[in-house]
Queue: 3 jobs
Job 1
Amino acid sequence: MTQQAGTTADFPGPEDVFGPSHADGGPELVQLLTPEGERVEHPEFSFDLDDEAIKGFYRDMVLTRRIDVEATALQRHGELGIWAQLLGQEAAQIGSGRALAPQDFVFPTYREHGVAWTRDLDPLRLLGLFRGVDQGGWDPNANNFGLYTIVIGAQTLHAVGYAMGMQRDGVVGTGDAERDAAVVAYFGDGASSQGDVNESFIFAASYNAPVVFFCQNNQWAISEPFERQSRVPLYQRALGFGFHGVRVDGNDVLACYAVTKAALQRAHEGSGPTLVEAYTYRMGAHTTTDDPTRYRLSSDVEAWKLKDPIARVKAYLTRNGLVDDSFFEEIEEEAEQLGHHLREGCKALPDPSPLSVFDHVYVDQTPELAAQKEAYAAYLDSFEGAH
C-alpha cells in the first residue's frame, strides 16, 4: 500500500532519529572530556582534532571569559547600560563556534559573545550595542554572524528562512565541502518555550532545512528553573517534530565541537535539521540587572564550579604534559591586553549622529525617508539656532 506524502509513515521512529543509544533512554549526555580532564570515548561521536586545537580552545575560552569579566565591570562603572553574562557557557559557545565552516551562517541571541569571537568579530562591536551607541550594526555578511536578537526566540524563524534560502540557492547537498552551507540558530532553554521557536521547528522539519538548533540549557530562564518548563529533556522535543536531537555536556568543549560538527555535516549533505541541547549552567547572572541569589542556591553554583569548562581543559593539558607554565602566562598576558583594549575602546566609542538612524533602514533610501531625514535635520538645527 502506497503512503501519501505527509502521513505519519514519512516521519522517523525513535531509533531512526536518535540511534539505539538514545531511543531506549540510554546514555543521554555526550561527553568526551570529564571534569577531571580525562579523555573518554563515546560510541557515536569523536573529537577528530589534535592537541594543538585543544590549546586553541583553551585560549578562546579564557579570552571569551575576559570579555565577559571586562564588560561586567564596565557596566558596574556606568559605561554600559546592561550586559548579558555567559560565565560558565564558554565551552558550549567555543566548541560549537569552532565547528562552523566559513560559509555557515549564525543567528545569535544576545549572549553569544564566544561565538562572535570565533567569527572574528571585534568584541568592541558587542560593547557598542550594550553601551547604546549603535544597534549592533556590524555587517552580518562580513563574518557570517547575524545581529544580536533581543526578542526572545525570534532569530530561530530568521534562521530557518535563511536556511531554506540556502536550499534554493543550491548550496546544500552538493558534495562540495567548501560550498555546502548550513545555519546555526542559538537560543536558551527559556526561549524553547516561545512560540517562535516551536514554529521554526515545524518549518525546519517540513522543509528539511539545513539548520542546527543549538540550545544552551543553562538551567534558568531568568528566574524560572528548567524543570518548570519541560517534563522531558529538551533534546527529546525534536522527536515530536520529526528530526534529530542530542544532548551534549555543555561544559565539555571537545564534545560540543564534535556534536555540532556532526549536526552541521548532516545539514550540509541535505539530511535536515538537528536540535543540540548543550546541558550547561549559567554561573553568573542572567544580566547585570539580575540578582540570582534571590532564586537559586549557592550550593548549586558551587557544585557547577567543579565542572568549570576552562578548568577541565587546563587539567587535561597539564596532566598530559602538553604545556608548561609559560603557555598559561602568555594567554593571561594576552587577556590583559584584550582587557585594556575593551576598557579604553569602550570609553572612546563615539556617540551616534541622530540623523544616522535614517541611513540603514533600506538599501536604497526612499523619497519618504529622505524627506523625514531632511525635516528632522531642520528640527535639530532649530535648537542650534536658539543658542
Note: The CA atoms of residues 129 and 135 lie 5 Å apart.
Job 2
Amino acid sequence: MIDLSQGEPFAHILCWVDGSDEACRAAELAAYLAQSLGAKLSYVAVGARIGRDEGFEVYAQIEGVSQPIPPFLKGNTHACLEQAMSIAAKMGISGAERLIESGDEVMAVCNAARAQDADLVVIRKRKSTLIERLQGAAASDTLANRCGFAVLSVG
C-alpha cells in the first residue's frame, strides 16, 4: 500500500509501450498522470537484439563503425512510442525520455525502471494464460512482486 500523506506519491513514471492499441492508450494516460503529478515521464519499448555476422564485423571495422545495433522493435511499437512522445510534448511535459531495451520483456522493463529510479510503472492490461495465473507470472505481478514497483495496469 502506498502512503499518499507523505507529499508527492510518484516523482517518476515509466510507461511500457509495446505497440498494442492498449499500450498506446496507457501511454496517453501516463502522460496525463505525469502532468497532473508534476512527475518525470519515461517511455520504454523492448525490442530484439539483432546479431552481426562476421562479414558485417569486417565491414564495420574497415568503416570504423563501432556503435552497437539498436534493438529491433516489432510491429507498431516504434509508431506507438513516437505517438507517446508526441502526446507528452503537446501536453508540455519537458524532458520525457524514450528508452529502448532488449531481452525478456518484463525483466527489461524492471531493469529500466530501476535504472531510471521510477516509482510507478504503467503497463497495458494483458490477458494472462492459465499457466501464468497459476504461476503468478503475469507482467503486473512480476513487476510488483519481484521487482518491487507500484504498477498501474490500464485496460
Note: Residues 132 and 138 are 6 Å apart (CA to CA).
Job 3
Amino acid sequence: MSKRDYYEVLGVAKDAGDDDLKKAYRKLAMKNHPDRNPGDAAAEERFKEINEAYEVLADQQKREVYDRFGHEGLQRGAGGAGFGAGFADIFGDVFSDIFGGGRGGPRRGADLRYTMELSLEQAVFGTTEMIRIPTVQACEPCKGNGSADGKPPRECAACHGSGQVRVQQGFFILQQSCPTCRGRGSVISDPCKSCRGAGKVRGEKTLQVKIPAGVDTGDRIRLTGEGEPGDRNAPPGDLYVQVQVRPHELFERDGSDLFCAVPVSIVTAALGGEMEVPTLTGKHTLKIPEATQSGKVFRLRGLGVKPVRGGPPGDLVCSVSVETPVHLTKRQKELLRELGDSLGEKHTPQATGWLDKARQFFDEHLKP
C-alpha cells in the first residue's frame, strides 16, 4: 500500500512553518496516542504515521529531499551515514562515477533519534532521565583505529590515497570509488580481529538527558556527538531526543495554557459557592457565582506552563460542567418535581429562548 502524503497526514499546507507543523503534530499525536485509544489498532497505526510524517517535515534536510523526490527520495537516502548524505545518495550512483563527485575519505557518523515519553509534570517542570540506546561504538581493542598492531592505515596502492580510480568503458573514462579501499584512500595491513578493520562494533550506551522545563510534544533535544561514530578520524553524528508527552487524567495542554473540565453540582451552580480545583502546583479555590451555566469558563492567570523558550507562564482554563444528579431517592425526585413546577420562564432563559426558536423553525419549515 502506497504511503500517504506527509503534509496530508498532518493536515498542513506545503509551505507550513515550524510552529504550524508542531501545533498540528501535537494535536494529532494527543488524539491518536495509544494511551487514549487502548486496543485500537487503527489509532496506533495513525499515531505511527503521524510520528513518521513529523520526523521528516521537522527536519530541514529531510523535508527538502521529500519535497523534491517524495517517499522514493527518502528511501534512496535512507542508507549510508546519516540522512545528511541522503541527497547525494540519490544521484551518487550515476553522477558521482561520471563526474568524480563521489564522497572520498572518512564520513561523519550517522545521526540517531530516540523518542522519550514524559508525563505532563515532567515536561512542565523539567527532569533528568537516563536512557539506554543501541549504537555503533568505537572498537575498544583497537581504539577505533581498525588495526590490530595499532599502526595507522597505509596509503592505498590502487588509488594512491585519492579514494578514486579511473575505469575505461568503451570511449568513456569513468571515475569511481576505489574498490580496494572502498573510497577511504587507505588500507589496513593487519585488521583488528574484533571489528575486522572497521574500527566500530555494535553495542549499547547509557546517557543522561536533561529535559528543560516547559518542553512539549514535538520538541527535540540535540545531544552533539552522541550519534554513531564516523569512519576513522571522522566526527560522530548527533543524537536527537524527540519529546512525546503522555495524555493527562485531568489536564490538556495547548501551548502555555492548561485546560481542565470541572464538574459542578446543580446546587452549587444555581446558588454559588466555592470548590477546590487541582493545579500542577497544588490546590486552588475557585469561586462559583450564582446561576453558573454549563460551559462557563474561568481563567486562572499564571497557573499554566512557563514556555521552554522564555516568556510569562500561561493560564489554567477551567470549564464548568454542571452535573445532573443520579440515583435519586423517591423523596428527592418529588422535591425536584416540586422545584420544576415552581420554576417559571424567567428561571430558564436559555431553554425558553431555544424553545421559541424551535417553534419558529417548525412553523416555517414543517408546514403541512
Note: Residues 107-137+202-247 form a domain with the HSP40/DNAj peptide-binding domain fold (CATH 2.60.260.20).
